[in-house]
Amino acid sequence: MQRELSELEQKGPRLTHYELLGVPADADGAGIRRAYLEKSKRFHPDAWYRKDLGHFGPLLSKWFQRLAAAYQLLSDEETRIAYDREHLADLSPSERAAVERRELARAEEERRSRERRERLLKTKGFGRIAAAKKLFEEAEQHAENGERSQAIAALRAARELDPKRAEIHNKLIELERAQLKALAHSALASAKDREERHHWKDAMAAYAAAFMSNSNSFSAAFGAARCAFEGGDFRQAMMWAQRACDISKDDPAARLLLARSLTASGMKARARAELQTLLARTPDHKEAKALLRSL
């Protein structure tokens, strides 16, 4: 286990999610789930309870979290597609070929489903109710398989055929909300990946995209502020840190970053005010005290 953790650390950000889970890039959802469950049992910190792990303890926790993040991203069809497209250059030749095969198969399945929906939409009279029921059942199957886009398309066609059926309407709203959540999660995952690689400008843009999907996301706002600051764009860092503070007023890290951004922008009076606000809530904050003394 120590050797495995050391090898993971050596590979670091070059490791793809497929390599981490130990699955081919064209693995289906069931295969990805099996691989995750098997590997997570070994990596889960509870499996090593009361063991003296030394400096491997934090590494075990770190790679368990990354394993969970990889599974969460690859188990959702939409976030997986986004990951494949963004990381295509990072994949091995065999992985790229597998992704391309899966993409072709998915495109063919979508074409067939679209043609079927178009045929059902031409149904006349009372047959429209039965056609809507078929589409609803297909949507449920697509959703169960993790094919959310296909499920949403089927539900929209079903709603057109039977607009008064509440079951269709409610399921469609549920999946559309889940889709927005998945897109926001995908943007956050992309941003974190770029931040780990120290691609500050690209990471800030990805965090900003995640924030556009969810304007209440503290993680997105604070992430954008961090990357802007590291990239030397202190005005952007100040703006994003302020948004993070607006979302979570009591977060000391966001408040400190706002003060640092203000200081770097030459706005020392405002920086002092922010530090005083921080210290009023967290009197023993050493970094805030040190920065305030320097001002």
Outline of the structure:
With 295 residues, this protein is mostly helical. It has helices spanning 2-11, 17-21, 29-43, 56-74, 77-86, 93-121, 127-144, 148-161, 166-196, 200-213, 218-230, 234-247, 252-264, 268-281, 286-294.
Largest sheet: none
**Regions with little confidence, pLDDT below 50 for 5+ residues:** none
Query: Structural class per helix/strand content?
Result: mainly alpha
Report Rg: 24 Å
Count every beta strand, where a strand is a DSSP E run of 2 or more residues.
0
What is the helical fraction, as a range of percent? over 70%
CATH homologous superfamily (4th level) name of the largest domain: Tetratricopeptide repeat domain
Q: Give the percentage of residues in beta strands.
A: under 5%
CATH class of the largest domain: Mainly Alpha
Shape: globular
Mean pLDDT: 90
CATH topology tier name of the largest domain: Serine Threonine Protein Phosphatase 5, Tetratricopeptide repeat
Number of helices: 15
Q: Please give the alpha-carbon distance between the first and last residues.
A: 49 Å
In the CATH classification, which architecture of the largest domain applies?
Alpha Horseshoe
Instruction: Give the count of structural domains.
Output: 3
H/E order of the elements?
HHHHHHHHHHHHHHH
Give an overview of the whole structure.
- The structure is a single chain.
- The protein contains 15 helices and no strands.
- It is an all-alpha fold and 295 residues long.
- It folds into three domains: 74 residues, DnaJ domain (Helix Hairpins); 76 residues, Tetratricopeptide repeat domain (Serine Threonine Protein Phosphatase 5, Tetratricopeptide repeat); 97 residues, Serine Threonine Protein Phosphatase 5, Tetratricopeptide repeat.
- It is globular and about 80 Å long.
- The N and C termini lie far apart (49 Å).
- The mean pLDDT is 90.
